[in-house]
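Chapter summary example: a protein plus flavin-adenine dinucleotide.
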Amino acid sequence: MAGSVQQTDVAIIGAGPVGLFAVFECGMLGLKCHVLDALGAPGGQCSALYPEKPIYDIPGHPTIAAADLIAKLEEQAAPFAPVYHLGQEVEALQRIPGGFRLATARGTAIETKAVIIAAGVGAFGPNRPPLDAIERYEGKSVFYLVSRREAFREVAADIDEGADAIIVKPALPYLDIVAGARERFDVPIAAYNVSGEYAMVKAAAMQGWIDERRVVLEALTSIKRAGADMIITYHAKDAVRWLETA
Ligand SMILES: Cc1cc2nc3c(=O)[nH]c(=O)nc-3n(C[C@H](O)[C@H](O)[C@H](O)COP(=O)(O)OP(=O)(O)OC[C@H]3O[C@@H](n4cnc5c(N)ncnc54)[C@H](O)[C@@H]3O)c2cc1C
């Protein structure tokens, strides 16, 4: 509801698993919640990045698919009637007498007695590889997420319609998708080893915890072994140097 200022006890920024469970906890204390998320649906990373992946570390659930966990968290929160504001990033947070005022990119304004920031690693969206005019191919032959295995069917349809290559990202968490696509499709497959994957290795190497050369070459080899024809990686220059001097 853009335009008017809405009032609540608690505003929760982020409708990921943490934000959803916070609704339940607040509800048990008799507090009314508004939940805001930049994504168009609740669930954070679980819904947006890996809804079908089994999770094994949830107490009481030996295994549960990420999407099912989110459905259960929503069900658990539902009796407390949270008000969701989805598809809108919170852009401003200021102190006002008696609480806080939030404003979103779509003009929603909320005054609240308390704010819970359950924003995970922050709002996220496509992490575009640095390729010219890639936007032209997005949604047609370039996809950033394979969030449903049925998506393979969509890839097949796109290939039928003329897509001449596919990109899978992030590379290491989605080696199964690379391997599955390799088995199913006879088009070049690029795996995008994203900046987060790069940063983790670099940070550990800088701490002296790992042998960077060995870890990088092993990771890149695993991507190749999964079936990628091309690897887009920030390790490229180092890897070439190491391979040339091997
Ligand atoms: C591929 C993959 C597999 C994983 N597997 C597991 C696993 O098996 N087990 C496990 O325990 N963990 C796993 N994780 C990690 C797990 O997903 C995260 O720890 C978890 O999602 C964190 O929950 P959260 O609610 O804190 O944050 P998130 O899930 O990141 O949700 C935060 C939400 O806040 C929103 N947000 C951020 N900033 C704003 C803003 N300014 N305005 C509006 N909205 C905002 C975001 O859009 C997002 O929806 C995995 C992660 C990935 C990427």
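Key point: The pocket of flavin-adenine dinucleotide is lined by residues 13-19, 36-39, 44-46, 49-50, 53, 55, 57, 89-90, 118-123, 173 (CB under 6 Å).
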